[in-house]
Amino acid sequence: xxxxxxxxxxxxTETLIKAWRANWPAVDVELELARMHxxxxxxxxxxxxxxxxxxxTWFKRCKPKMxxxxxxxxxxxxxxxxxxxxxxxxxxxxxETYAEFERRVRAA
Length: 108
Known about the structure:
52% of the residues lie in helices and 11% in strands. It has helices at 14-23, 29-42, 51-61, 78-88, 98-107, and strands at residues 2-5, 8-11, 71-72, 75-76. Helix 4 (78-88) packs parallel to helix 5 (98-107).
């Protein structure tokens, strides 16, 4: 896949896609790349100079997709718990333990 930039085209490799999937598990990377491509076609004057920075900023602004939570030893991973809490509007409090935060997220 290629996206248009202000200096030409930028090739998006499978390696980059795998890295983005790992960094943004709550983002449907392929869907957002397709949306990005369409947006860039409509907004030719706003094509990026630094494509990787543009793509990563795009991912940061995406709405998270529904993810299956990974449970290890009866606990959800910290990252997934934080995402679940954010989706429910629950944020970690200063000095709060993982167990306390997990209880509040589950109760919300």
